[in-house]
Amino acid sequence: MCAAGVGVLSVLGIAGAGAEQPDGPGTERWQFTTGGAIGSSPTVVDDTVYVGSDDGRVYAVDTENGTEQWAFDTGGVVTSSPTVVDGTVFVGSRDGFLYALDTENGTQQWAFDTGLDVTSSPTVADGTVFVGSHDETVYALDAADGTQQWTFDTSYLVTESSPTVVDGTVYVGDFDGFGGTLYALDAADGTQQWTYAATGQIVSSPTVVEGTVYVGDRNVHELDAADGAEQWSYDTGEAVVSSPTILDGTVFVGSGDGAVYALEATDGSEAWQFGTGGPVLSAPTVADGTVFVGSDDDNIYALDAADGAQQWSYETGGSIRSAPTVVDGTLFVGSNDGTLYALETSATGSSEDSRVRLGTLGHHHVWAENASGQDGEDDDDGEDGDDGGDDGGGSGDGPPPVVGDTAPQSLAGDGLYRDIDGDGEFTIGDVQLFFEHRDADVVQDNAEFFNFDGGESPGVSIVDVQALFLDYLGEQ
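Structure (tokenized):
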């Protein structure tokens, strides 16, 4: 069933009215439409789905029929995924704030200003909220009132990589133009325990199982949680923005090459792979022997966890970078078409993989019920890629050359000049050149041509580098 063309009732906040009754796995129970793309991953607690949207709002939606319970306006795009603990929703916004909201009515309890975008998703352990910011800082805040407990300065901005807390240690990665660093920090005071120098940018969120950390950059890495020593690495051939998740000794993860991988946790050998029609930036989840994951080809896939065989797929109206969550057999996921979907599955249970059980990028009631005293592992945008074509369509006459004698080109004709070296192609080399020259006068003085993140902030920053990098991934 294609879900393009959502109902007017959904726009008015009554999406559940008249929703079709499901008639089998992969069919729609209901849909709820927001005013912007949904890259945020849904959290489901006490019969309510919480999710953010590019329209700047955080929504609470009834799990049974998709009706809106409340919405809270932030001052910026919300790609951060909500965390719900003890009647409070914690979520970041690109307005630079981390918000604490009442689950009952969305009333703001407190807000903490980091100064720059918060696209990282918060997590909570022992009454402390941990979150990263584009200001190159990891924060530990009192969950009750938002009081700062400690901060840790990273080398570069913390983007979509979200903290995971296990056995008193916070694991989180940062984003550099050429590489990133994974940090292990003491949850009590922020003291650095170890670092791991990655081979590429860390947008992926780490997961931790049985003393082992798994994270993606250019490869999928398995590290010793005690000291960060690499145990194995698997090269997918493209960047791994997807966050890995583990269940029963298997690592499930997506890649920019368009495939979903199942790897043996013991040695990183490939058990199977499944190819989709676009980059897989969504993080998988597993319930009752089925892997669920979204793709930039607009589909959510259900795959057999044992061999990767496709069970079904459901097409939305936009790329899916939101990580799905399954609760009592219903799958919840957002799409860049601006819609939150509830889909019927063959599962009867809920997500049981490490990502969801550790409260990273969306979670459900099991983690929420344990999070108050948790200090360890629980046991239980629309696509904006260039299509190629002639130069043109840019605002004004375009920018002068950034490097060499050839001016950048706007290959998509949208006024954004992604072809930095002007050779007629948009490649990873353009991303690297933009990173190197982002502070040059020729770039800063022509910022309107390089506003790749679509924000309203003046000038060009590392955020635009990140957005350009994600655009590149979207074309691969």
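The CA atoms of residues 78 and 419 lie 28 Å apart. The first strand starts at residue 28 and ends at 33.
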